[in-house]
Design a protein that fits this description.
The structure holds two protein chains of two kinds.
Chain A: H1 2-35, E1 43-49, H2 56-75, E2 84-90, H3 95-108, E3 113-115, H4 120-132, E4 137-139, H5 145-148, E5 155-157, H6 162-165, H7 167-176, E6 181-187, H8 192-205, E7 209-216, H9 224-233, E8 237-241, H10 246-256, E9 263-266, H11 274-280, E10 288-292, H12 303-314, H13 324-342, H14 347-354, E11 359-360, E12 367-368, E13 381-386, E14 389-394
Parallel strand pairs in A: 1-2, 1-3, 3-4, 4-5, 6-7, 6-8, 8-9, 9-10
Antiparallel strand pairs in A: 10-13, 11-12, 13-14
Helix pairs in contact in A: 2-12, 2-13, 3-4, 7-8, 9-10
Chain B: H1 2-31, H2 38-56, H3 60-83, H4 90-113, E1 128-131, E2 134-137, H5 138-160, H6 162-172, H7 174-179, H8 184-209, H9 217-231, H10 236-256, H11 259-276
Antiparallel strand pairs in B: 1-2
Helix pairs in contact in B: 1-5, 1-8, 1-9, 1-10, 2-3, 2-4, 2-8, 2-9, 3-8, 5-6, 6-8, 9-10, 10-11
The chains are: A alpha/beta, B mainly alpha.
C-alpha cells in the first residue's frame, strides 16, 4: 500500500515535472519558431572530376575552378538565394566511371544540377546520362565536335568549341604569310585532333601544303620518332595537336634534333603556366603559341575576382592559373545566370531557356548558344610566350588589347632577358 | 635516313625499357608474382630523382646512388611485410597486393607533388651527338649505356654467382630448391629488392625523357607487360630483345606510315609469335608446371 501510495505520489510528481518541462519546451519553441530564419535548402550540383588517371592534372584544375566559382557565387547570393553546394566524385579519367558517377548524382543523390567533367572523351558519355534523365549539362572543357554532332539538346559548352580554336591562328597565318609547307602532328583525341584538322583544312584551301602529317595514339610515351619525322620535314611552321605532357616531350625532342621552327603552336600545354615552364625550361619557351579561350587580365565579369580568389586559395601568380580553371568557373557562372533567370530548379525549363538565344557573361567573355549547344558568341585567342611572360597576341582587332606577335622564334634556350 | 634514325632511336629507347622490364620478369620468374606496382614504382623512382636533383642540385645519374638502395630496401620491405605473409592463393592475392601498393604509391605521390607535370633536368639533357645526318640524343645514349651495363651485371649475377644459382634454382623448381637447402624466402626478398631497385633507375631515365605526374604509371605498365610476355616470363635476355624489337617496330612504322599503326603492327607480330611460341621468345615451356 505504502509502496503503492508513494509510488503513485512519485508518479504524480514525475508527471507534473514532465508537464512543466514540456510546457517550458513548448513555450520556448513556440516563441522561437516565429522569429527563426530557416536556413534555405542548398542548391546541390554534381560534378565528376578526374583526380587520377590520364587527365588528373587537368582534372584537379577543373575541380579548383568549380570550387572557386561556388565560393564566389555563394558570396554573391548563391543561386535563387540559396547556397551552392558542390558534390564531387572522381572518375579516374575513365568513361565508364564517369557514367557511374553521374548516374549516382542524379538517381541516388538527386542533385539539382550537374556540371560537366574534363575532356570531350568524358563529356560525351556524361551528357548521355544527363540526357537520359532530362538534366542539362553545362560544361566548359568538352568542346570536341563529336559532343555536338549527336543531336543531344541538353549539352551546352560555354567555351569556344574545338573546331575554331586554331582557326584564329590559321586565319592570321593565311593573311600574313606566303603559302608554304607546314608540319602537323596530333594526338588522336576527339577534342585535340579536330582542332588541328580544321586549321589544316582552312590552310589547305589557302594554298599551304603538308610537310608531314602524323597522328599518334593517346598512350604514346616515346615521341622521338614523331619528332624526328617533323624535324626531318624541315618545315618552318609546326602545328602540334598535343596535350601535356606530350608537347613537353616533343619540344625536348625538337631541341635534341636541333629542329627550330620559326613558328610553333601547340593545341595545349603551353597554357599550363608553371607546369609548362618547369618542364621545358623557361629559356625554351620564347615564341611558342597556344590557343586559349581566356585572357587572365580580362575585364570580363568576375574575372578579377576569380584570379584573386584563386591566388588566395591556391597560391602562385596569375600565370600559374591553368586554363581549365576559368573554363569550369564560366560553366558555373552561366548556370547561375540561367537558373536565376528561369526562377526554378527545373532542368526542362533551364534547357528551353538556354536554347532561347539568351546571352550570358562569363570570365571568358560572352556566351550564346547555337542550336547544337556550341558557344557561338566565343572569340578564341592565341597566346604566345614572350620573354617569360604568357601574353595574348591574337586576334587582331578584337575586343581585348593584344601584344605584337613574334613571327620568328629565336634559337632554343635564348629567351631574351632569361 | 629517317628509317635509320628511327631504328637507332628504337634501340636506344628499347634499352631502358628492357631495364625496367628486367625487374618485372625476374620477379615473376622467381616468385610467380606479376608486379603490378612496377609502373607506380618507376614513377616513384622518377620523383625521388626529381626531388634530389631539384633540392640538392645533384646530377640525375648521381641521384641513383641514393634512390637505388632506398628502392631496393622498399622492395625487401614489401616482400617481408606484404608478400611473404600470403599463404593461400598466392598468385591472385599477390597481384591484388601489388595493385594496392600501386594505388597507395600513386595516392601518396599525388598528395606530395600535386598532379602537375614535372621533368628531371640537367644541363646536358637537351644535347645530342651528331654523326653525319644521324642524331643521337645524349640522354638516350647515356641511358642505353647504363642499361646495357646494368643488364650485363644482372646477367653475371644470375649466371656467375652462388646467389644466381640459388635464383635460377628457385625459378626452375622452388620445391626442389628448398629441399636442397636454398633459402627461397631470402632469394625472393632479394629478387624483389633488385626488381624494385631497377625501377629506381628506370624511373630516373623515364623522368629525364618524359614529363610525368603520379598517374604516368598506366602507360608504362602496359608496355612493360607486353615486353615481358613477348620476351618470355623470367627471361632477362628475352626482355632485352623484346623491348628493342618493340620499340624499333613502333618507331619505324611511326615514321614510314603512322604512329597510330605502330602499336598495332607490334601487337600483330606479338600475336603471331605467341601462336608459335606461347611461352614467348625466350620463355621455357612448362618450367613452372610442378
Amino acid at each position: 500500500m505504502h509502496i503503492s501510495r508513494f509510488g503513485s505520489v512519485a508518479s504524480r510528481h514525475k508527471v507534473q515535472l514532465g508537464a512543466a518541462l514540456s510546457a517550458v519546451a513548448l513555450a520556448v519553441t513556440g516563441l522561437a519558431v516565429p522569429n527563426a530564419t530557416a536556413a534555405p535548402k542548398p542548391i546541390t550540383i554534381g560534378i565528376s572530376v578526374s583526380l587520377s588517371g590520364d587527365f588528373s592534372g587537368d582534372g584537379k584544375a577543373t575541380q579548383q575552378g568549380y570550387k572557386i566559382w561556388a565560393t564566389w557565387q555563394n558570396a554573391h547570393g548563391g543561386i535563387l538565394g540559396r547556397p551552392v553546394v558542390l558534390k564531387f566524385l572522381s572518375d579516374a579519367s575513365s568513361p565508364t566511371q564517369v557514367v557511374t558517377n553521374y548516374q549516382k548524382f542524379i538517381t541516388s543523390d538527386k542533385v539539382d544540377f550537374v556540371l560537366g567533367p574534363y575532356s570531350t572523351k568524358l563529356t560525351k558519355p556524361a551528357s548521355d546520362i544527363a540526357n537520359r534523365y532530362h538534366y542539362v549539362m553545362l560544361e566548359g572543357i568538352g568542346g570536341g565536335p563529336s559532343v555536338f554532332s549527336r543531336g543531344l539538346k541538353n549539352v551546352f559548352d560555354v567555351s569556344a568549341s574545338a573546331t575554331y580554336q586554331l582557326v584564329t591562328y590559321a586565319k592570321w597565318l593565311a593573311a600574313t604569310q606566303k603559302p608554304q609547307p607546314i608540319a602537323y602532328a596530333t594526338m588522336d583525341d576527339p577534342f585535340i585532333q579536330p582542332m588541328v584538322d580544321f586549321a589544316k583544312a582552312y590552310l589547305d584551301k589557302k594554298g599551304f601544303t603538308d610537310a608531314v602529317y602524323k597522328v599518334y595514339p593517346a598512350e604514346t610515351t616515346d615521341f622521338s620518332p614523331i619528332a624526328s619525322a617533323v624535324a626531318a620535314s624541315g618545315a618552318k611552321i609546326a602545328i602540334l595537336g598535343t596535350m601535356p605532357p606530350d608537347g613537353y616531350s616533343m619540344i625536348q625532342n625538337f631541341i635534341q634534333a636541333k629542329y627550330n621552327p620559326e613558328q610553333l603552336i601547340l593545341a595545349s600545354g603551353p597554357d599550363q603556366g608553371a607546369d609548362f615552364t618547369k618542364s621545358v625550361g623557361i629559356t625554351n619557351t620564347e615564341g611558342i603559341m597556344v590557343p586559349n579561350t581566356w585572357i587572365p587580365t580580362s575585364n570580363y565579369p568576375g574575372n578579377k575576382d576569380m584570379v584573386a580568389l584563386y591566388i588566395k586559395t591556391y597560391g602562385g601568380d596569375i600565370n600559374a592559373i591553368n586554363a581549365d580553371v576559368p573554363e569550369a568557373f564560366a560553366a558555373g557562372q552561366v548556370l547561375a545566370q540561367a537558373v536565376n533567370k528561369v526562377g526554378s530548379t527545373s532542368n526542362v525549363k533551364l534547357q528551353a531557356y538556354l536554347h532561347s538565344g539568351a546571352k550570358f557573361t562569363s570570365v571568358q567573355g560572352p556566351v550564346q548558344f547555337a542550336p547544337d549547344g556550341e558557344n557561338s558568341g566565343a572569340a578564341p585567342y592565341v597566346f604566345q610566350w614572350q620573354k617569360g611572360q604568357y601574353v595574348p597576341v591574337l586576334p587582331l582587332g578584337g575586343p581585348d588589347k593584344v601584344s605584337p606577335i613574334e613571327t620568328l622564334r629565336p634559337a632554343w634556350g635564348t629567351t631574351p632577358g632569361m | 635516313m629517317l628509317v635509320l634514325q628511327a631504328i637507332i632511336e628504337g634501340v636506344l629507347v628499347g634499352g631502358f625499357y628492357a631495364l625496367m622490364a628486367a625487374g618485372l620478369t625476374l620477379v615473376f620468374g622467381v616468385m610467380d608474382i606479376v608486379n603490378f606496382a612496377i609502373g607506380a614504382l618507376i614513377v616513384l623512382g622518377a620523383y625521388l630523382s626529381y626531388s634530389i636533383t631539384t633540392h640538392f642540385h645533384i646530377d640525375p645519374f648521381v641521384s641513383l646512388i641514393f634512390t637505388t638502395p632506398l628502392m631496393t630496401a622498399l622492395g625487401m620491405f614489401i616482400y617481408v611485410f606484404l608478400i611473404k605473409p600470403i599463404k593461400t592463393n598466392k598468385v591472385v592475392m599477390s597481384l591484388l597486393t601489388m595493385f594496392a601498393v600501386a594505388t597507395l604509391i600513386e595516392g601518396i605521390l599525388d598528395i606530395c607533388y600535386n598532379s602537375g607535370f614535372v621533368q628531371i633536368h640537367a644541363s646536358y639533357i637537351n644535347n645530342s651527338l651528331r654523326i653525319g645526318k644521324l642524331n643521337f640524343p645524349l640522354i638516350y645514349v647515356l641511358s642505353f649505356l647504363l642499361s646495357a651495363f646494368l643488364l650485363s651485371c644482372l646477367y653475371l649475377v644470375t649466371y656467375r654467382t652462388k646467389f644466381g644459382r640459388s635464383l635460377r634454382a628457385s625459378m626452375q623448381n622452388p620445391v626442389a630448391a628448398r629441399l636442397v637447402g636454398i633459402d627461397t624466402d631470402r632469394v625472393s626478398m632479394i629478387t624483389l629488392g633488385i626488381g624494385i631497385g631497377l625501377a629506381a633507375i628506370g624511373g630516373m631515365i623515364f623522368g629525364t625523357t618524359n614529363a610525368f605526374n603520379a598517374s604516368s604509371s598506366y602507360d608504362i605498365i602496359s608496355r612493360l607487360l607486353v615486353i615481358v610476355i613477348l620476351g618470355g616470363f623470367g627471361s632477362v635476355g628475352g626482355a632485352l630483345v623484346a623491348a628493342i624489337f618493340m620499340l624499333v617496330i613502333q618507331d619505324v612504322v611511326a615514321v614510314v606510315w603512322s604512329p597510330v599503326w605502330g602499336s598495332t603492327a607490334f601487337y600483330m607480330i606479338l600475336m603471331l609469335v605467341l601462336l608459335v611460341r606461347p611461352q614467348g621468345l625466350f620463355g621455357k615451356k612448362g618450367v613452372r608446371a610442378q
